From TrEMBL:
The protein, known as: Flavodoxin family protein
Span of domain NADPH-dependent FMN reductase-like: 1-107
Listed Pfam families: FMN_red
Keyword Flavoprotein annotated: yes
Alphabetized UniProt keyword annotations: Flavoprotein, FMN
UniProt keyword annotation of Flavoprotein present: yes
Amino acid sequence: MEMLVINGSPRKDRNTAALLKYAMDGAAAAGAVSNLIHLYELDFKGCCSCFACKKKGRKFSGCCVMNDSLRDVLEKIQVCDVLLLGSPIYLGNITGLMKSFLERLIFANLSYDSKDRSQFTGCIQTGFIYTMGIPHDFINDSGYQYIFDTNKRYLELLNGKSEYLISADNYQFDDYSKYDASNFDVVHKSLIRETQFPLDCQKAYEMGERLCSL
Ligand SMILES: Cc1cc2nc3c(=O)[nH]c(=O)nc-3n(C[C@H](O)[C@H](O)[C@H](O)COP(=O)(O)O)c2cc1C
């Protein structure tokens, strides 16, 4: 059992990465091997609309044909059992690089022919961990639910189950006193970091374990 983990945050050791690492520990407890890839270490673009993945008579490998540093990752995804993604919310959506990555992964496997809309031949269980600054109570009015549901639907085109985890009200800076950020209540943020974030980490652990036990 192999789980591929994609960190869509530019920060390699903060909220998103921490949760992904807990999920990797959970995966290890289920006997799986996992590999972590930081998207921001790669040099790649989003879908360029060449339609090579839809062309009649194509030799389709399941992989987007664009030849940049994402290609190797997309090839690895073809042979993994579990794919776990993590992204902070940036300006109301996943990060730009995570979006570009999903365009390349999902559009290549999206069928314009079949009723089930998938031309992926394998079966990959998927998970998505979202991190964000807004408090949990604001999510309903934020429009983010549409993003969580839409990405879940797209990831289900890889023929497995898909689930997601939300970690809200994250602690954004190392030290709030060093930044102009008076809109945030640092006492509240510290409390969430000490009480809620560890619970989110535990949920991430269980998610990794669950995904690798399916
Ligand atoms: C460019 C940028 C835009 C952001 N936009 C949002 C936003 O729209 N909504 C939100 O809840 N948090 C927003 N945040 C906060 C991050 O989502 C949050 O701090 C997250 O935990 C960062 O993840 P990381 O620690 O893994 O980098 C933004 C942060 C940055 C840097």
